[in-house]
Specification:
Helix content: 40-55%
Strand order of the largest sheet: 1-2
Strand content: 5-15%
Largest sheet: 2 strands, antiparallel
Number of helices: 4
Number of strands: 2
Shape: elongated
Structural class: mainly alpha
Order of helices and strands: EEHHHH
Length: 132
């Protein structure tokens, strides 16, 4: 009996259409917003530590690089996976065991003697057959 599962419902991409009363020009996925904020904050701190003034062409220096990184990191790279999903699957592959033993011994049991390895013992029973 097959039971339906709904695990793929969590992979539906959620999009944001407006922020309060401000309607966005295009619907933005929540992941894009999170990646942009996660890249823009360290980028802004790095520029502040380097002493770059905010009155420089701020839209080019402060917004474009995090936007490009966001766009590159959220598009499919290989096997229709995003960069983060690809890195997670590669890390999971490295962490997996090389062989699956499935409750069986990994190696053959040790042989008790050299004679046992070269000889075999068979037993059987023979009886008379009745003519037809």
């Amino acid at each position: 009996m097959d039971l339906p599962t709904y695990t793929n419902i969590w992979r539906i991409e959620k999009r944001l259409y407006k922020l309060y009363d401000l309607r966005l020009p295009m619907p933005l996925p929540i992941v894009w917003i999170g990646v942009f904020v996660g890249v823009a904050v360290p980028w802004s701190l790095l520029l502040a530590l380097l002493g770059l003034p905010f009155d420089a062409p701020w839209h080019v220096v402060y917004i474009v690089p995090p936007g490009v990184v966001t766009w590159l990191s959220t598009r499919p790279v290989i096997e229709s996976k995003r960069l983060t999903e690809l890195l997670q699957s590669q890390a999971r592959y490295i962490g997996e065991p090389r062989t699956w033993c499935r409750m069986a011994p990994v190696a053959a049991p040790a042989i008790r003697s050299a004679q046992a390895a070269t000889s075999a013992r068979y037993s059987g029973r023979a009886g008379k057959t009745q003519p037809l």
